[in-house]
Amino acid sequence: MDNLISQNKLLNTRRSLLKAASISTLALVSGSVKAFSQGIDFKNSTDISDNDLYAEVRNQLMLEDGLVYLNTGTLGPAPQLAFDKISLMLKRLEANPAIENFGPMGSEMETVRDKVAKFMGADEEEIILTRNTTEGISIVCSGIKWAEGDEILTTNHEHGGAETGLDFLADTKGAVIKKMTMPYPAESKKQLLDLVKSSITSKTKMVLLSHVETVTGLRWPIKEVSEILKGKDILFIVDGAQAPGMLHIDLHDLGCDVYACSGHKWIMGPKETGVLYMKKSIQEKVNNVFITGGYTAYSRSSGTRNAPIIIGFGDVLDWHMAIGTKRSEKRCMELAAYCYDELSKVSGIKVISSKDPELGSAIVSFSLPETSDNGELFRSMRDKGITIKRLPQYNAIRISNHIFTTNDDVDKMVALLKEQV
To answer: Which one of 185, 211, 222, 418 is at 20 to 30 Å from 157 when CA atoms are compared?
Structure first.
């Protein structure tokens, strides 16, 4: 009886709260998209259980039926609403390109910076729309003044995309890159903060850390690092590729100077979307040609943008905010805790992610014994409908537990893992 009531509540929510303004009625009637795929106002779903709510989230995705998708850390699956909206916008754009792009659609595109600001706890004037995390960090690194011999402090677990900007400073301006060797798994916040404190020198002019590390899923205590760096002439850049969409983000509270992320990972937005946040107090220090025309989505220096993609990104942000970013973070962490516990029961592997709730994230990684090859495991799981991430340099595997995944997905992955190890 309770189950029937829950189903009726969900059905009533679907019926009454479809977002009609952005819907292709023809597509819905013709059955060319999943039923109710255009979005539900999840703000009105507080009486729906998490399991029912996130089952509906899964229903709104375009993943293959039966696919166990555990690699959002590489690319997230966009909801059907984004695909439909972008398709409609592309058709509308090509019907009258110049008028639409520099008129109604251009105006709609310009609203996305405000949506990002609300989603990430910033001011619109601090937001630049990019194509990905790499581009955001590169904009900053290629636009700041630098003296030869100045030091950059980072870690040996950073993504190659972020390192591109650092390497540019080393190759063109004589920057010295110092990499802290990361413990894995990390034991405590204090261990990490002491590592930062002991590594800073009088020559340190930049610190670059990942909010959530791409290797182990370690969640850096960004706010505490910001406090350590406060008052020092050190630019603090955060690679946020793996955090927004998984974690509730409040950039003003975190206190970093720069934060770059992609829209196509945990935010599950259209591919080739990204965000660069620059705190107002440091903006005058960054002089890159891309932003000389201002921070608006379109400017004389940005040139023509892909308005349909950017508008679709804005719709996905609305979707996340309706679900609730704090609720999503709670769900992700619950899924990750189950994943961690189940992997810990598998003999022969080593979980290299932190179990500390303050340091952990929705990413759980594990290394394989020397006798096992993570490439073979990856291919075996792929062939059986399970998508995971290889970490070749560590002979390890990374699992991404996002709001649309389930404990059953983890069980299937672990069962196959036990057969292979």
So the answer is: 418
